[in-house]
Amino acid sequence: MISLQVQNNQSFRLDEIPFLDKHKFTDSVAEGLTNGYRMIGLFPLHKNMPHKIISALVDSDAASLHLIGGEFQKDKLEFESLANQFPQTNYFECELAENYGFIPINHPWIRPVRKQSTVLGNKPYQFYKLEGPEVHEVAVGPIHAGIIEPGHFRFQCHGELVYHLEINLGYQHRGIESLILDASTNQRVILSESIAGDTVVGHTFAHCSTIESLAGTQISLRAQVIRSIVEELERIAMHLSGLGGVANDIGLAIVASSYGRLRTLAINSLAEISGSRFGRGLFVYGGVRYDFNDENIRQITNKLEVVKNDSAVINNFLFSSTGALTRFEHTGTVSKDFAQQIGLVGVVARSSGIESDTRIHFPYGAYRYFPVSLITLPSGDVFARARLRALEIDESLRFIFEQLENLPGGEIKINVGSIAPCSGVISIVEGWRGEIVHTAITDEVGNIVQYKIKDPSFNNWYGMNLALRETAISDFPVINKSFDLSYAGHDL
Amino acid sequence: MELISLLKGIISLLVILILSPLFVGLVNKLKAIFTGRIGAPLLQPYYDLKRLFRKETINSTNSSFISVVSPVINLVTVVVAAAMLPIGFARPIISFEGDIILFAYMLGLARFFQILAAMDIGSSFEGMGAAREATFAVFAEPIFFFTIGSIAFINGLTSIYDIYHSIRLDNVSYLVFIIVCSISVFFLAITECSRMPVDDPNTHLELTMIHEVMILDNSGIDLFLYQYSSYLKLFIYAILETSFFYPFGVRSYTVGVVIFVVVITILSIALSISETITSRFKMKNIPQYLLFATAIGILNLLIYTFTK
User: Fold this and answer.
1) Cβ contact (<8 Å) for B284 and A160?
2) Same domain, yes or no, for A235 and A322?
């Protein structure tokens, strides 16, 4: 396998990447995937030069990233699809076809990913349809009854049983990737805060890391620790909200409202440090904007103590309630085998027994010095996904208490140097939902010419199709909530 | 005497018609309090009805006259059923030998038209809800006849008023029999009124709804009629449940009314607690739950008959 091997947040020169011809490129990527690597990106080097593409693969065991370049004929953007053999490449290939006009040959199911209006190969997209006298189709969305983002779900059902679910997204497409390219330096952090409204910290963390790595800036340890604390706060808040959502979907009112109350404490802790309950405005290039002092450490500690004590009681109630367990167990199961094949990441992957946590496998920032524990559960059902959240909250709380007690001294912000020309960097961050990948490529004068974002939702939406097979349609809401995926993060 | 009795019957019906939204409001308010929220005002169901009453009705272009007549039939049949219920010890307006059958099938007719109207709209959601409602109704119907029906069978009475009037808790085995009956009726009430854990009245998730999904496309007066009849239905079942407790009181109208108010309040507390701490069943487990309630009814009848 011919590739350039780099590490998380390590900037590389573009001429170091081996650019192979069409066939060798396909063979090399296939070889990497056969070795058990996972695809995290497939995109052209420059949005105006689509014929030179990079495929990025991660090797979790060796904590390394493999970059494989491919150079195609300028007028014939075709490549041999790997999706039949490696289903995880499916969406990446579709996205490449949608955004840059590539034609994946022998692709099993080419479909729009991020944009609604796209016509692929001059044909409008036809939804998958099951036929038969007793089969019926239920279409939900894109406008929903609750306050959630738009997404269209088509169920092919036989009575209450779902045979197939097709998820159609792209209603939130804002073109964030090109907005970031066009934006001024000051606007970029603000833009990255809006990639997914529930993962403000995760995405800004990844964005700041890419820029700092390209500039060769090492931020202070204090700033790194503050960033990690804030990231864990976001994880706690969103996991509490996810648990509340799951409880609400099975009608367990007392648990739902209790988690809701605790989530308020968690997001208020975020507000203590950044002034925004979602952590907006905290991240800047070169560090963080606000520092911890004795007063806000005390406030946050008090709030999190309540979260710790009360969540123990509520978790105990929820996970020992027979009614809840009947709904959770063996509902929406994704087997480990399937999860690996389709390349699931984050909470969903870990609850299917896959050891995948960027904080441990590709340590970055403060996690290099202060590790967190890897938690996995084997069953892959709604129970595992809910339980894993509860366990991760405890682990995040432990991490935060430990860090708050002995914060390293030093500046919280340093100046960032100039961005290296003709370089690229891949930053991976474990957001609360899972692996967030930001990639930046620069030109000869150090302008960013390509910026790619991969939210964990991009991998995991596909997992929900599988989780819904042979399941009762009335279990869809609780399964959906247990995945808790982002529409905005997927559509970009 | 005839006139006074008639007057009491009319007052009873008016009480049911006027107070039924309050019962829902009370349950919702208590539920909010138990989950640590302030909750909507006690009178919110009245405000909702008032708002719906003023709104325009829009029907699906696919729908036929069924969708137009169904809300009215639905409310009328439920009101007729309400007119057969005793409050306190007053004889209801409609009361005759065999009215228990009429009562059961008035509610059955209301459901029948609601299911028809849901299918009539032609949306896959409503169709799904109608299928669920019809399936679960099959399992729910026997519960009624093995509870209220078995009291009737034992006493040889067939009028709801007489049945409840005949309940005397003077021997232990009869007391146990009545208490078990009231448990079965509680199960029935939860199913018929689409409450937790069978159906979640507060959910926004179309795919999990049973009753709510059938009226998803209704608006204005139609929705007003449906909502009001569902409030009435809940209150009717609450009264069926409370009527079991009358024999504890002195047989006078005033004492009857006091017991009515107290028991209704207790019932709303019980309902809101059970709705707060239970989670919904899997859809496929609901028939088991209903068969369980039916089995309780059958066993109860058998045990009483053989131990009498």
Assistant:
1) yes
2) yes
Give the CA distances from residue A103 to residues A52, A100, A109, A122, A250, in Å, rounded to whole numbers and listed in that order. 14, 9, 12, 12, 44
Residues A23 and B114: their CA atoms lie apart, in Å, by 63
Residue contact A254–B35, C-beta within 8 A: yes
One domain, residues A268 and A347: yes
Residue A155 maps to a domain? no
B207–A136: do the CB atoms touch at under 8 Å?
no
Beta carbons of A251 and B37 less than 8 Å apart:
no
Please tell me whether residue A349 adopts helix, strand or coil conformation. helix
Q: Kindly report the CATH number assigned to the domain that includes residue A404.
A: 1.10.645.10
Secondary structure letter of residue A410 according to DSSP:
S
pLDDT of B249 reads 52
Q: Which tokens go with B254?
A: 């005033």
User: Domain for residue A160, yes or no?
Assistant: no
pLDDT at residue number A146: 73
The answer to whether B134 contacts chain A (CB < 8 Å) is no
| Full residue range of the structural domain in which residue A376 is found | 176-491
Give the pLDDT confidence score for residue A206 in this predicted structure.
Answer: 93
Interface confidence (ipTM) of the complex = 0.86
Domain spans, chain B = 2-307
Token pair, residue A133, equals: 């006298």
Do residues A276 and A419 both lie within one domain? yes
Tokens of A410: 């030093």
Using DSSP, state whether B238 is helix, strand or coil: helix
DSSP one-letter code for A120: B
Tell which of A254, A258, A473 to mutate to test the B interface (max B CBs under 10 Å): A254
Question: Among B34, B205, B283, whose Cβ lies nearest the Cβ of A249?
Answer: B205
Q: Which of B:24-53 have CB within 8 Å of A? A: 31, 34-37
* Closest partner CB to B204 (pick from A139, A146, A474): A146
CA dist B132 to B118, B119, B284, Å?
A: 11, 12, 10
Helices B220-243 and B99-121 cross at an angle (nearest 10°) of: 150
pLDDT in tens, A119-170: 666 677 788 888 888 888 888 878 887 778 888 888 898 888 898 888 888 8
Within chain B, residue ranges assigned H as helices are: 2-34, 44-54, 65-82, 99-121, 124-155, 160-166, 172-192, 211-214, 220-243, 253-277, 286-307
Q: Answer yes or no: do B125 and A138 touch at CB < 8 A.
A: yes
Is residue A29 one of the residues assigned to a domain?
Answer: yes
B278 in contact with A at a CB cutoff of 8 Å? yes
Which of A65, A83, A105 finishes a domain? Answer: A105
Decide which of A84, A105, A126 is a domain's last residue. Answer: A105
What's the pLDDT band for B204 if we cut at 50, 70, 90?
A: confident
Cβ–Cβ gap A145/B125 under 8 Å: no
pLDDT at A118: 63
Give me the long-range contacts of B67-72 (CB less than 8 A, separation at least 24). Answer: B67/B117, B67/B120, B67/B121, B67/B222, B69/B113, B70/B113, B70/B114, B70/B116, B70/B117, B70/B120, B71/B117, B71/B218, B71/B221, B71/B222, B71/B223, B71/B225, B71/B226, B71/B229, B72/B225
| pLDDT one-digit tens code per residue, B78-101 | 999 999 887 766 778 888 888 888
What does the pLDDT read at residue A395? 93
The verdict on residue A119 lying in a domain is no
Contact, A423 vs A12, CB < 8 A?
yes
Tell me the C-alpha distance between B128 and B167, whole Å.
41
Residues of chain A with pLDDT below 70 are: 117-122
Which CATH number goes with the domain that contains A83? 3.30.460.80
Contact B124 A138 (CB under 8 A): yes
Provide φ and ψ at A344, rounded to 5°: -70, 155
Same domain for A207 and A80: no
Q: What is the pLDDT of residue B36?
A: 87
Q: Characterize the bridge pairing of strands A64-71 and A287-288.
A: unpaired
